[in-house]
Amino acid sequence: MIPFEEARRRLLALVAPLPSEPVPLDRAGGRALAEAVIARRDSPPFRASMMDGYAVSGDPAPGSRLRVVGEAAAGRRHSGPLGSGEAVRILTGAPVPDGADRVLIQEDVERDGHHVVPKRGADRASYVRPAGADFAAGARIEAGQVLSPALVALAAAFGAATLRCAARPEVAILSTGDELTPPGGDPGPDGIFASNAYGLAALVGAAGGRARILPIAADDPDLLAGAIRAGAGADVLVTSGGASVGDRDLVAPTLERLGARLDFHRIAMRPGKPVLAGTLGAQVVLGLPGNPVSAMICGRVFLVPMLRRMLHLPQDDEASGIALVAPLEANGPRTHFMRAVRQDGGVRALGNQDSGRLSPLARADLLIQRPPHDPARRVGDVARCLSIGL
Ligand SMILES: Nc1nc2c(c(=O)[nH]1)N[C@H]1C(S)=C(S)[C@@H](COP(=O)(O)OP(=O)(O)OC[C@H]3O[C@@H](n4cnc5c(N)ncnc54)[C@H](O)[C@@H]3O)O[C@H]1N2
Ligand code: MOO
After folding, report:
1. Tell me, which GO biological process terms does this entry list (predicted)?
2. Cβ atoms of 46 and 177 closer than 8 Å
3. What architecture is the 48-129 domain classified under in CATH?
C-alpha cells in the first residue's frame, strides 16, 4: 500500500494537459479556457452617455435656454462639436459629442421646441462613462479557469468569436460484477442496481469531462477484457468493482493480460484501499473499488484532480480548517475521508462511515480528511475539510 498523497502524485503524473480546441462563444460556457482572451479595443470605445437626456458643456444655469443642435443615439454619433449655449439630444449608450462633458437627464429639463431648459435642482452627476472605463484594449481573461456565464459575456465584449478551450477529456466508465443490473432493469433477489457508473459520470460531467458509460461486464476474464477494449479511445478508463483480493476481483489481472502497465495497486486510504492505476497504451486506467461510497470518494479525490490537470485548471483542493462540534475517535493507519455535515458553524462526522451506504454520502456537505494515526479529536479541535462536490 502506498500513502494517499503519493497515489495522488503518481496519478497526476500519468496525465497531461490536453490540446486546446477552438470553441464558438455560444458553446463556451463551462469550458476550461486554455489560452488567454485579449480585448481588441477599449470598452466603451468612446465616452458614452449613461442616460437618456441632453449632452451639455459645463453647468448650465437653471432656467437658461440651450439650443438643441442635433441628436446622438447608440450606434450613431452627433458629428460636430458642441458650442456654448447648445445641447445635443442624447440616448443611453451614445457617444458623447466633443465639447460636452455632462448629460442632463431628461427628467431634469423642460423641452421647449428646439430648446431645453434645465430645471432647478438638476442631478449634478456627469452620466458620462469614460472611454475604456470597463476595460482597455489588451485586457485579458487569463487561461486556466472555467468560463462562467459572466466570463463568456466578457469574452464576447472583448470581440472574440471563438475561444481556445482545453479539449474535454473523455472518460469511459466500466462497471464489473455479476450482481449488477442497470437502473430500470430487474436485478432479481440477489442482484443490485449498478449505481457507480452514473454517479461517476455525473462527477465527470461536473468536472468538465465527457463520460461514456460502457456496458456492465460480468465477472469473467474474457467478458471483462472485451469490455475494457470497448473503452478504447477514451483518455481515461475508470473501472469500478473487482479491484480487491476476492476470487472474482479480475480487474488487475485482466488489465495486465491486455498489456496494461500498473503503476500502483492499493492505497493506505479509507475508503479506497483497493484502488489501482496504470496505463493501457495511451489510456490512463483508474481502477476504483465497487463499494459505492469508495467509488464516489475516490472519484472526487483522484479522478477530478486528473481531469483538472487535463483541462489546464489549477487544483481546487485547498482544504479549510473547521472546528469539530462532535469528537472523533483515533484514526487507524490509513488516510480517512469521513463524510461530514456542517452544524452550528462547525463540522460533525456522520455516524455511519460504511463505504456501502450511499444515503449518508448524499447528505454530506464535506469530507473530513484525517491523516494516518490521527489521534482522537475533541470538540473544538480543527479538522481539515474538503468540499465534497458529490
Ligand atoms: N478480504 C478482504 N476483503 C475485502 C478487502 C480486503 O482488503 N480484504 N477490501 C474491502 C474493501 S476496502 C473494498 S472497498 C471492497 C471493494 O472491493 P472490489 O473493488 O473488489 O469491489 P466488489 O467486490 O466488486 O464490490 C464491492 C461491493 O460494491 C458493490 N458494487 C460493485 N459494483 C457496483 C456498482 N457499479 N454499483 C453499485 N454497487 C456496486 C458490490 O455489489 C459489493 O457489494 O472489498 C472489500 N473486501
Ligand atoms: O476502503 Mo474500501 O474502499 O471502502 O471500504
Report:
1. Mo-molybdopterin cofactor biosynthetic process
2. no
3. Beta Complex (2.170)
